[in-house]
Structure formats: structure tokens, C-alpha cells
Specification:
230 residues, alpha+beta, Glutaredoxin, eight-stranded mixed beta sheet, two-stranded antiparallel sheet, globular
Length: 230
């Protein structure tokens, strides 16, 4: 009977870890940007991760692809889009806003530099605005045109954006600075495969060489092809 109880407890712990979107022993993000431990009691050393926003976890490579949630948002051309837009090619999702003072421009600069190192093979970048009152489709288009990457912007009702980000385990929190608008958001980017499935989370503000190398390995691993050496 004792062995059965232990087994049931192990199954329960594993189920919780999977529901929180993390592997056993990893940290799950809460709505307040903190992290709860699933099966590991080892504390995380946050001093090793130079990040802002509401996410301080390291990169996460998922052992299984997780479907992206459906959504209904407007792209920078004024067209209504849903989950089907994520199918057919690799894409990188990123929550941010055009008047973001640091996280967004620094992350986009990393993506642009990584695109150069990867010989233009960086997946399409999709910026989902967390400040829809300001970020109109035209504003998003103009903002993204400053970066030499394949990209598009999405905007829409803030509650839908909240639901979308929360379903991706990157919940938004209270406004970081009223003068800059928008919401406090994660610095993570979400790597999505051609089946519209999440395969990894990468910190956007890390050395370009590291980011490009990690992303290249992810693409190679999931496509079964050797990625170009960078």
C-alpha cells in the first residue's frame, strides 16, 4: 500500500508539472512573475539571469511540442488572423509594444543580429502588442519596419491578448511604468514549429552568438537537417 501511495504521488506531481508547462525539476511561472518548483527543491539563482519583465526563468527546450492556443487578433495589414497563421513555417512569437523603452528594442535588435548570423534564416517574428490602445496596425507596421527581419504585428482587445499570453505561460502583469504605457511583459520569445506548436522558449536579451546557436540547434533538431554553421 505504501508503494502505491508513493506511485500515485509521483504521477500527481508529474501531471502538475505538465499542466504548468514545464518538465519535472524545472520552474513554473506564476501570474506574478515568480516561480514555483515542481519536483526539485533546488532554489534558482536569479543573479545569473539578467532579465527584466515578469519572467526570470532560463531558456526552456520542451521535450514534446505543445499546441499553440487559438486566438483572434488583427495583423498590421488590418486582416483578422487566428492560429492558422502560425502554420506552414517556423515562427517566433514575442509580446511587447512599440513604446517599450528597453526589453522590446533590445530583443528585436538581438533577433535582427541573429538573422544576419543565420544568413537570413531567422524564422518570421510575430510581435503581439500588449498596448493595443496605442499600437494600431499601422503603428506596428511602421515600428517593425525599423528592423531587418521578416515580421508582422498583431493587436486586438487586451483581454484576448491576456488570454493568449497566459495560455503560452507568459502571463502579463500590472503596468510597469504608466509613462510608457503597455503592460509588464516577459522578455522571452516563443519558438513555434510549422505545425503551430511551441517547441522552446528563449530569452531574447542574451548574447547574439548564444541565441543564434541555440535557435539553430532547435531548428536542426526538429527538422532533422543540419543547420548552416554560423
Amino acid at each position: 500500500m505504501k508503494k502505491i501511495k508513493i506511485s500515485l504521488l509521483s504521477v500527481a506531481s508529474l501531471s502538475i508539472a505538465m499542466l504548468m508547462g514545464c518538465e519535472p525539476g524545472q520552474h513554473a511561472q506564476t501570474d506574478h512573475g515568480e516561480h514555483s518548483t515542481t519536483t526539485s527543491s533546488k532554489p534558482m539563482d536569479h543573479s545569473k539571469h539578467n532579465m527584466t519583465g515578469n519572467n526570470t526563468a532560463p531558456d526552456a527546450m520542451l521535450s514534446y511540442a505543445r499546441p499553440t492556443p487559438d486566438f483572434s487578433l488583427t495583423d498590421q495589414s488590418g486582416q483578422l488572423q487566428n492560429q492558422s497563421m502560425l502554420k506552414g513555417q517556423w515562427q517566433i512569437l514575442f509580446f511587447g509594444f512599440t513604446s517599450c523603452p528597453a526589453v522590446c528594442p533590445e530583443t528585436l535588435a538581438t533577433l535582427q543580429a541573429a538573422n544576419h548570423k543565420m544568413a537570413g534564416e531567422l524564422p518570421k517574428v510575430v510581435l503581439i502588442s500588449v498596448d493595443p490602445e496605442t499600437d494600431t496596425p499601422a503603428q506596428l507596421k511602421a515600428y517593425l519596419s525599423n528592423y531587418q527581419i521578416q515580421s508582422t504585428g498583431l493587436t486586438g482587445p487586451i483581454e484576448q491578448i491576456r488570454q493568449f499570453s497566459h495560455a503560452l505561460f507568459l502571463p502579463l502583469s500590472k503596468q510597469a511604468n504608466p509613462q510608457h504605457g503597455g503592460l509588464d511583459h516577459s522578455g522571452k520569445v516563443v519558438v513555434v514549429n510549422p505545425n503551430a506548436e511551441v517547441v522552446a522558449y528563449l530569452e531574447g536579451r542574451q548574447p547574439v552568438d548564444q541565441f543564434a546557436d541555440k535557435l539553430g540547434k532547435i531548428l536542426a533538431q526538429h527538422t532533422g537537417k543540419a543547420h548552416k554553421k554560423i
